[in-house]
Amino acid sequence: MKYYVDVEGRTFELDFQEEGEQLRVQVGDQSLTLDLRPVTQPSLYSLLIDNRSYEIFVETHGDEFDVLIDGDMFHLKVQDEWARRLANIQRKTTVEAGLLAITAPMPGAVVSVEVEPGQEVKRGQGLVILSAMKMENEIKAPRAGRVKSVDVQAGQTVEQGRTLVVLE
After folding, report:
1. How many CA atoms does the CB half-sphere of 57 hold within 13 Å?
2. Exposure string for 32-45, b = 16+ CB within 10 A, e = fewer
3. Are the C-beta atoms of residues 85 and 93 closer than 8 Å to each other?
4. Do 105 and 74 reside in the same domain of the chain?
5. Alpha helices in the chain, H assignment, sequence order
6. What are the CA-CA distances from residue 151 to residues 10, 42, 67, 113, 159 (Å)?
7. Confidence class for position 134, pLDDT limits 50, 70, 90
8. C-alpha span between 18 and 58 (Å, rounded)
């Protein structure tokens, strides 16, 4: 499975593969063997990368992590393939003024609707939770505005491109 990790302005694509009991990760042209084990819950881990040992401390903040390795602190943002595609689609739909229809980026089922007509929303605020491919995806407001209409309800199945919410 592929993950995208943003570290201090740089993005790395990591492709994880299980080979028997080993976990391998492809980073660029490098292939590494990993072994990650919890030492104390919830934050201290032992990490072996190609038989080199590291003790790491991890603090989780949603899809972001603060990681301390050998005295160096790194702030990471991690996205799987679907979250990255969804974020890229939402970035492309940004309209600063006027009516903005927020549409389903993929077919799926509406798990919940987080807003109602007339509600003021901030940029990045969750609007609808959409379940697709056994994953729940939060559809967020690409800009601040007021909800003009909510065109779906929980439990409803939607096709790609279907209007979910309209902002004004």
Report:
1. 5
2. eeeeeeeeeeeeeb
3. no
4. no
5. 81-92
6. 38, 41, 41, 10, 13
7. confident
8. 23
Q: How are strands ordered across the β-sheet holding 126-132?
A: 135-140, 126-132, 108-113, 157-158
Whichever domain contains 106, its CATH number is 2.40.50.100
Same domain, residue pair 98 and 138: yes
Per residue in 39-64, pLDDT (tens digit) is 987 789 999 999 899 999 998 887 78
Tens-place pLDDT, residues 106-119 = 788 999 999 999 99
* Amino acid present at 104: A
**Conformational region of residue 148, where left means phi above 0, alpha means psi within -120 to 50, and beta covers everything else:** alpha
Q: For residues 114 and 165, what is the distance between their CA atoms, to the nearest angstrom?
A: 10
Lookup: tokens for 90: 């939402």
